[in-house]
Amino acid sequence: MNKRYDLVVVGSGAAASGVASRVRQGGRSVAVVDFRPFGGTCALRGCDPKKVLVSGAEAVRSARRLADRGVRGEPSVDWSDLISFKRTFTDPVPGQRARQYREAGIDAFQGVARFRGPSELAVGDTRLEAGNIVLATGAEPVPLGIAGEEYATTSEEFMALESLPGRVVFIGGGYIAAEFSNIAALSGARVTVLQRGERMLTGFDTDLVGWLMEAFRAMGITVATGARVEAIERGEQGLAVRYSSRGVSTALEADLVVHAAGRRPALQSLELEAAGIAVDEHGRLRLNDWLQSVSNPVVYAAGDSAQRGPPLTPVAGRDAEIVAANLLSGNTRIARYHAVPTVAFTIPPIAAVGLDEQAARKVCARLQVRCVRASGWYTARRLAEPVYGFKVLIDESDRHILGAHLVGPAAEDTINLFALAIRENLTTDALREALFAYPTAASDIGHML
Questions:
Q1: Which of 412, 416, 422, 405 is nearest to 205 (CA)?
Q2: 2-141+264-329 CATH fold
Q3: Within a 10 A sphere around the Cβ of 92, how many other Cβ atoms?
Q4: How far apart are the first and last CA of the chain?
Q5: What is the pLDDT of residues 287-345, one digit of tens each?
Q6: Three-state SS annotation for the chain
Q7: Domain boundaries, the chain
Q8: Which of 14, 185, 240, 435 is deepest in the core (most CB within 10 A)?
Q9: Pick from 81, 70, 16, 3: which is nearest to 43 by CA?
């Protein structure tokens, strides 16, 4: 069967659905293709279900901190109930998304899409010809490249566990390892993180990550840095992770090993070469500023497939706006990202926006660094949270904020105000003149400046 569309979108997440709906509203014929349940990573396998699990862990941690401050009883996570609660968010999504496509007049195909020419895709026995094709396939775990890697569980599989094993090892030290290790530890598991680098969360400020590690230790999480994982083996007592660190080889027993060592655009099954789509030495799409393939102008990309901005859902949404505008009106919108905040939903969370200290020193001759461990401030004391602090980078010549880095209660919300200030080029004086509701974490901003 052959079908012809103005646009075919591969994927069904935030970027894919955003492009498809906008182009369809523009009067074009549109189809979407996904071999997985409709909804994409964020809604089904990432941000949203992850934060539901974080909520349960947060409640336990909060109650324990306040145990001698008016809260009684020993809290615990019932893993089965928490997973059931998570499913109330994820289970309806595929059906809702399919219904939205149907109501919008978008044809939806379930199956693996493979290029059969510059503007043609095969999905099973169906051939889809398109005026344009948008790749928005999300991301997938990178191969570990070690013996026994098939024994490792992904973060997606972790969030589907019916029961939580007693001993959990995370390989990696980024967002997934940091967030999921907190969830597992506060849900009763004995947790170890094996990080190849010298510290976790390398995308965040070194000082603040150091403070955050105190919270990890308080949760009973063991973090081994400089750890090169060599193999995962299965034995009678479960799994064994063999790794070396600073010249010492160790075998660590585990019931569950979670792959958290990085993700890449999920492009492997598309057979890009059949469409003449150029990739770089790392296998990433080569795109111009309009998020269009440099070698096949029919093809655009958005979200994790594009990798033009940080791998975040808001960036995927903005990519969708840009690509849809360029498809409907010609290449008029350029992908540029400035002051995009990022958060790791650890307990407590850590957040950043703008330049880090090293980058700020390179561009600013008169840099003021406001770095304070603020555990004694009301925001932290009210919650009995010892990990609270910030680093704000200010250009003394014009009083503009170059970067902001936060860790502690409500960091995931307060960082958005700093992002707005940087984006709108507000001075510290202008921000301090704003009156924020009190007592809130945002009302600390004036003191941070």
A1: 405
A2: FAD/NAD(P)-binding domain (3.50.50)
A3: 12
A4: 64
A5: 999 999 999 999 999 999 998 888 899 999 999 999 999 999 999 999 889 999 999 99
A6: CEEEEEEEEECCCHHHHHHHHHHHHCCCCEEEEECCCCCHHHHHCCHHHHHHHHHHHHHHHHHHHCCCCCCCCCCCCCHHHHHHHHHHHHCCHHHHHHHHHHHHCCEEEECCEEEEECCEEEECCEEEEEEEEEECCCEEECCCCCECHHHCECHHHHCCCCCCCCEEEEECCCHHHHHHHHHHHHCCCEEEEEECCCCCCCCCCHHHHHHHHHHHHHCCCEEEECEEEEEEEEECCEEEEEEEECCEEEEEEECEEEECCCEEECCHHHCHHHHCCCECCCCCECECCCCEECCCCCEEECHHHCCCCCCCHHHHHHHHHHHHHHHHHCCCCCCCCCCCCEEECCCCCEEEEECCHHHHHHHCCCEEEEEEECCCCHHHHCCCCCCCEEEEEEECCCCEEEEEEEECCCHHHHHHHHHHHHHCCCEHHHHHHCCCCCCCHHHHHHHHC
A7: 2-141+264-329, 149-261, 348-448
A8: 14
A9: 16
Give the closest residue to 364 by CA, choosing from 328, 401, 419: 401
Which residue type does 175 have? Y
Residue with tokens 């659905």: 17
**Which amino acid type is present at position 148?**
G
Tokens of 396: 């003394």
Chain-wide mean pLDDT for the chain?
A: 96
Distance CA 73, CA 447 (A): 36
pTM, to two decimals: 0.95
Percent of the chain predicted with pLDDT > 70: 100
Which CATH number does 149-261 carry? 3.50.50.60
| Tokens representing residue 97 in the block | 């998304």
